[in-house]
Amino acid sequence: MTADLFAPLSFAHGPAMKNRFMLAPLTNLQSHPDGTMSEDEFRWLTLRAQGGFGLTMTCAAHVQRIGQGFPGQMGIWSDAHLPGLTRLAAAIKAAGSLAVVQLHHAGFRSPKALIGEAPVGPSDDEATGSRGLSTTEVEQLVEDFVLAALRARTAGFDGVEIHGAHSYILCQFLSAGLNRRTDRYGGSAENRGRVIVEVLKGVRERCGEGFLLGLRLSPERFDLDLKEIADFAQNVMRAGLIDFLDMSLWDAFKEPADPAYQGRSLMSYFTELDRGNVRLGVAGKIMSAADARAMLAAGADFVLLGRAAILHHDYPRKVAADPDFKPVSLPVTPEYLKAEGLGPAFVGYMSTWKGFVTEPEAAEA
Q1: Whether the predicted model's global pTM rises above the 0.85 cut
Q2: Per-residue pLDDT, 64
């Protein structure tokens, strides 16, 4: 049965998803150098909306110029980005999908060669050559996340997701090892999470009750403690600060990496939380229709698809037609990916993923 995957999902704020399939925010390197929308980026995203995804999320869009994490990244730090974003939001919504921008700042993961100056983070960091933000600069960072959310609303998007995962700047603040501040944004777990809480409160206050607000967290790696992240997620949900929580697990079926927390699934640490009116989604190696159903059966409200959505722009439609659907086997050819709506830059990026794209055949001797 596929009924659960195709049941609508309502949120505390904003419109409902028509099904339980959300396009994961995927790095694709396809925007113009100034962060404006390209035709390749537009095609990649709108094809997924047309393919039946209940919510189509952009890749990470940086909220400050110096927050860029990789070439070809979408920008939302300037009103110059509005025309492309407005066109994109309208096309996604016209296809019957919710349109959401993921808001991002790479922090000390911003390459100096890309941004033209030393990257910034919660604290001075010799390994990355980054400098710690002043208290005033942290306050400006919060404001710039909120301004980016307002820009997304102006462009017609249904909502935003705040990127607090994968050791980008907000995740860096959460880490006791990376965040060595002594002001109100450092020290205790509550202080280290304060920047995210302030962003969430600011977005809700200034974007209104009809705006969808999500948060992405990752619970492992990057000097994070699983229990701390679970406690933070619980506090955010209990306070009703978000409409959905997107847990990026790398592998939604795995046990925790930390031996202290093993003996049960990593996902279970989040499905057991009191989520109130907050919807919980999981991402990580969810490939087949059976995988997606297993996630709902294990307590998730929706699934976020990355690789499966790259391979099939119409993945939800495929599952609707075949409850036993499995994606095409890897590796696939560059031509296959182009036919699925990936531009040359995205195909090139996927070629760096081991075993995803076929190797060029060697010339005959």
Answers
A1: yes
A2: 98
**CA nearest to 127, candidates 172, 91, 186, 67:** 172
Q: What residues contact residue 268 under an 8 Å CB cut-off, 6+ apart? A: 298, 299
CATH 3.40.50.720 applies to domain 4-327 = no
- Are 161 and 25 in contact by the 8 Å Cβ rule? The answer is yes
Phi, psi (deg, nearest 5) at residue 289: -60, -35
**Do 217 and 164 form a contact (C-beta atoms < 8 A)?**
yes
* Cα 41 from chain centre: 16
Every domain of the chain and the residues it spans:
4-327
In this structure, which amino acid lies at residue 308?
A
- C-beta separation of 224 from 172 below 8 A: no
Lookup result for tokens 């991402």? 283
Place of tokens 């925790």: 256
- Which residue type sits at 347? V
Give the three-class secondary structure for 203.
helix
Q: What is the amino acid identity at position 141?
A: L
d(CA 162, CA 152): 12
Question: Would you say residue 342 has pLDDT above 60?
Answer: yes
DSSP string covering 140-151: HHHHHHHHHHHH
Question: Which residues partner with 102 through β-bridges?
Answer: 60, 161
Residue 361 pLDDT exceeds 80 = no
What pLDDT digit, counting tens, does each position of 83-130 carry? 999 999 999 999 999 999 999 999 999 999 999 999 999 999 998 999
CA distance 181 to 186: 4
